[in-house]
């Protein structure tokens, strides 16, 4: 398994060097956020997405990653997705960006997100879609990567099944990053083509 406690600077550098891919990923996530809702990020990392999305608080287990986020003005609470430091029904919205491959127990994490969200709140999850042409390449070469060694990539359908099992209602999905050239990329509805997929779920009782 990789060690994100030593990769904070390298992680940030990748997004700086691939700014157009980052911009596409940001737009994809932003397109599914509820206007006016205050989101918290699960696995806020270096805060690079949180800062751009206007998210002011997140949960992060890696202190090395968290120090970058704090420099960006993000309030970071130490913790893990499987045991969120939030009361039940307290969060307006939750975001998780490419964290699912590294979760110890994804079912527990999604159930925690459901517990922490207020009724009507949305859970927006961005992930590497294994069931895409680029996703197959990520899967094939993951053990060669400092970031993805030991990762468990999932398809859109698998993410949806886990979320619905946790109690969520599916809303819609978008996708981007159709090739890895650092060039402008569109954000399209649906899934199955772009390796960076984003799915929106809502908590309904």
TrEMBL record:
One GO MF term: S-adenosylmethionine-dependent methyltransferase activity
Transmembrane spans: none
Gene3D superfamilies for this protein: Vaccinia Virus protein VP39
Xref: SUPFAM superfamilies: S-adenosyl-L-methionine-dependent methyltransferases
Annotated GO biological process: methylation
Cell membrane among keywords: no
Top-level taxonomic group: Bacteria
Keywords: Methyltransferase, Transferase
Protein name per the record: Class I SAM-dependent methyltransferase
Domain spans labelled Methyltransferase type: 41-125
């Amino acid at each position: 398994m990789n060690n994100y406690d030593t990769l904070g600077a390298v992680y940030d550098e990748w997004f700086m060097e691939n700014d157009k891919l980052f911009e596409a990923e940001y737009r994809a996530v932003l397109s599914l956020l509820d206007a006016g809702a205050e989101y918290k990020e699960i696995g806020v990392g270096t805060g690079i997405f949180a800062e751009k999305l206007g998210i002011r608080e997140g949960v992060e287990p890696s202190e090395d990653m968290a120090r970058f986020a704090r420099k960006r003005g993000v309030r970071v609470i130490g913790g893990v997705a499987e045991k969120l430091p939030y009361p039940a029904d307290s969060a307006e919205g939750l975001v998780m960006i490419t964290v699912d491959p590294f979760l110890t127990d994804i079912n527990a994490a999604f159930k925690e997100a459901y517990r922490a969200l207020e009724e009507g709140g949305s859970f927006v999850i961005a992930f590497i879609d294994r069931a895409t042409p680029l996703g197959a390449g990520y899967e094939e070469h993951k053990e060669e990567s400092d970031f993805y060694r030991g990762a468990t990539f999932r398809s859109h359908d698998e993410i949806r099944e886990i979320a619905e099992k946790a109690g969520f209602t599916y809303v819609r999905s978008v996708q981007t990053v159709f090739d890895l050239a650092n060039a402008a990329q569109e954000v399209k509805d649906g899934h199955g083509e772009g390796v960076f997929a984003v799915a929106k779920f809502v908590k309904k009782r």
